[in-house]
Amino acid sequence: MEKTSWDDADIRESDGCPPVVKEDTSCSRRPQIFHPDTKADRRRIPGKCRSLVNLCIGNLGRHLEDIIEEIHLVAPTFPASVKASLLAIARRRDLLCDGLLVALADETWEVLDVSGSDITDASIEALARVCTRLRAVDISRCNRLTPRAVRDLVQHSPSLHTLRWGGTTLSNNTATLALGYILPKLNRNEEAEESWEELDIERVGKGGQSLRWLVWPSVDEKSRERLETECPRVVVNPKLFSKGLSVPWEARPGTVLDAPFVEDIDPETWAVKISRTVEFQIVSSKDLPSRETAVLSVAERFKLAFISRDERQVCVPADDIKDEGSDSRERLFVDILASDILERSHST
């Protein structure tokens, strides 16, 4: 029987990372070459322990409906990646609402996926003023959005190069009416400037000046012809292998923009969806507490949030109260504990 030697192994370099040679003990076939940089090898290995941060994010995601109304108190202390992960979990659990989107908005975000949610124009307007670095946005199947939301996104996101929309009848109608906002065009200004250096790009051009890719699966022929005529630079529904084009991953078919934010989080976190309408007051980014103005620590803020939840759970109908004396004592204890925490926070 012929032996397989190391000289027979096809060893190649893959992006500067040496391959791993796995020998077959039966010596009946050549050694298999595994390149660790391939996409398949980057997938999570079964049984591998998740990081502590991702475990904490998963735990918050499972109980997001309990803290969603108070999350604006602690959200400013979260890193941008944690905010993005919580937003992705909320979208998968059908909990994404206007208040949550505004509370989690971070100025460093470059990718936004709110597809299939019930957000409105008000939250998109507030978010667009904060997240001015957006490069790719997915607003498909958002039936409550109007062309006004598209206008605000394009106006405040000069680097936006990929937009995904449509998917439902209402969303397709909004996309058709909003075409005028995404098409780049020049402003007609009769005021003459002394030199080109003094010109302001916002005064010269408007619309999607950086828009390059438009993902609209159910685009109608009239809209497609208008895009091809007025702005041939914008590619509608780009194919994965387009001749002469390098399609970014944000514009590829079937791409989920927020998938990288939850790739190492337990899928059981969003297995249970709760259809719940949350009464949430829309606030602007100026009204949200910042890292500098936050007085309470993260632990104390979570404690206050859960105390508020317990207070709502204690207030049950009178028919279900077995011992009114013990119930009143529990309420009194909660009120005293909450007052004590607030006094200590103001004293610090």
Task: Tell me what the structure shows.
The protein is of the alpha/beta class and about 350 residues long. The protein has 3 domains: about 1-45, no CATH class; about 50-190 and about 200-270, Alpha-Beta Horseshoe (Leucine-rich repeat, LRR (right-handed beta-alpha superhelix)), CATH 3.80.10; about 300-345. The chain is about 35% helix and about 5% strand. It has 12 helices and 9 strands. It has helices at about 50-60, 65, 80-90, 100-105, 120-130, 145-155, 170-175, 180, 200-205, 220-230, 300-315, 325-345, and strands spanning about 20, 30-35, 110-115, 135-140, 160-165, 185, 205, 215, 235. A 5-stranded parallel beta sheet has the order 3-4-5-8-9. It has a two-stranded antiparallel sheet with strand order 1-2. A two-stranded antiparallel sheet has the order 6-7. Mean pLDDT is about 75; it is low at about 1-45 and about 275-295.
What descriptive keywords fit this protein?
alpha/beta; elongated; 12 helices; LRR_dom_sf; 35% helix; 5-stranded parallel sheet; disordered N terminus; Leucine-rich repeat, LRR (right-handed beta-alpha superhelix); Leu-rich_rpt_Cys-con_subtyp
